[in-house]
Amino acid sequence: MAAKKQALGRGLGALLQSMETTNPEVDYDNSITASIALIPISKISANPHQPRKEFDDKTIEELSQSIIEQGVIVPITVTKGNNDTYILIAGERRLRASKKAGLTEIPAYIRVATKNEMMEMALVENIQRENLNAIEIALSLQALIESFNLTQEKMSEKIGKSRSSITNYLRLLKLPAVIQISIQEDKISMGHARALINLESEQEQLNIMNQIIDRELSVRQVEEMVSELKAPSNIKTKTSKKQRPLPASHIEFQNNLSEKLSTKIEIKRSQRGKGAITIEFSNDKDFERIISIIEEN
């Protein structure tokens, strides 16, 4: 048992033992803001308003090893529940890692909090985490806006992000679900996604997303592709005057080949039927990828 208490961090266990808040008879219901105490892990239940439902097993394991060696450096935050139980407000990773490390007790700030305050604190802590992906942050921001009617200025003050940054995150939620999932799975970056938002066509967004993944395109390359697609119609008209429109069969082939190779294909054809097919590639690796697809067929 003594070894478990040593895992509370240097000096923290001794400090808690000397504090009145370690007394289980203390009534925290009327306390102001927060008290700190050492409480049984078995009496802590998860926050039902926790916006994050999945936690990475590897990071929990790493944190668990850190707790075994260094102890719980930062207390979790809880509020009193019913029958001497507690409800977690913030610190679910620390709680899970402490369980994995074999601790039976954990240092905690005990706060008086309403359901709305619990949700708000959980959301704010969630947003401020360093390992969240852009979609998780966007969903948490949206939840704060919808639940608490916060302006972007007020939200900026709460979470320490600029209003322009908040706007950029929220815009990601306008993208198709497939693209949002790709951001969550780290297949494309937020920079890629911000470029795709500027396209009105969902199909164009999805086509370019596939090319980003298949060809490992940089954000700059994607921005250039989007700019080209959004080029004013009068520029396209000037270009088209120099070339005769492609026959329907050529256009169909161009589209099918572009989809098959996951790259831009351009077919040029003169009035006499002579022409050229241009296959675009972004780097040597992308070139080899295209060649392998062609050779397989």
Structural overview:
The protein has 297 residues and is of the alpha/beta class. Strand 3 and strand 4 form a beta hairpin. The protein has helices at 2-6, 12-17, 57-70, 92-100, 115-127, 134-148, 152-159, 163-171, 177-184, 190-196, 202-215, 219-229, 233-242, 248-261, 284-296, and strands at residues 34-40, 44-45, 76-80, 86-90, 105-111, 265-269, 275-279. Among the domains are: 2-113, Alpha-Beta Complex (Conserved hypothetical protein from pyrococcus furiosus pfu- 392566-001, ParB domain); 242-297, Alpha-Beta Plaits. The longest helix has 15 residues, at 134-148. The protein is elongated. The strands form two sheets. Strands 1-5-3-4-2 form a five-stranded mixed beta sheet, with helices on both faces. Strands 6-7 form a two-stranded antiparallel ribbon. The chain contains 15 helices and seven strands.
What distinguishing features does this structure have?
disordered N terminus, 7 strands, Alpha-Beta Plaits, two-stranded antiparallel ribbon, Conserved hypothetical protein from pyrococcus furiosus pfu- 392566-001, ParB domain, five-stranded mixed beta sheet, 297 residues, alpha/beta
